[in-house]
Amino acid sequence: MALLGLDVERFFVFLLCVGAGHLAGLWAITFAQPLLDLLGQNPDFFVARGNSVGDILILAFVNAVFMGAGAKVWNPNALWAGLFTASLIIPVFWFRHHFQDGGKFPDHMYEDLNISPGEMVERKAGILPYLVLVAGLATVLLANWFFVLPA
Predict the structure, then answer these.
(1) For the whole model, what pTM was predicted?
(2) What is the tens place of the pLDDT at every residue in 70-83?
C-alpha cells in the first residue's frame, strides 16, 4: 500500500479494479480464442465472404495503425524493441535459404504448390509485395509518431 501511496479503502478499490481487469482479460481471451482458431484453420474465410484484395489490405493497414499507436501504451520504446526483436530472425532465414538450401526452394515446397521444380521461374508480382511491406512499416511508424500519450 505504501508503494502506491494509497490508504486502505483506496487500496481495496485498486485491488477490485485489478481483479476486474483480470476477469475482463480472461473473458476476452475465452471469447476470441475459438474465433482466432477458426480463422487460422480456415484462411479462405475472407474469400468465402467475397472480400476483395483491397478489403483485406485495408483491414491489414488498420491493424498496422493500431499496432503503431498502441505500442506506446506499454512503453515508449516498445515498438522499437519489438521491431528489433522481430528483425533478429532475418539472418536465420538468410542462412537457411542461401547455405542450407543452396539458394533454391526445396523440392517438397514445390510439391505443396502442385508444380514441378522448374515451373516457377517467372515473378509475376514484381516489386508490389516489397512496396506493400514498406508501406506497412511506414504506416506503423507514422501511427507511432502521430499518436502520443497525454502528459
Answers:
(1) 0.59
(2) 888 778 888 898 88
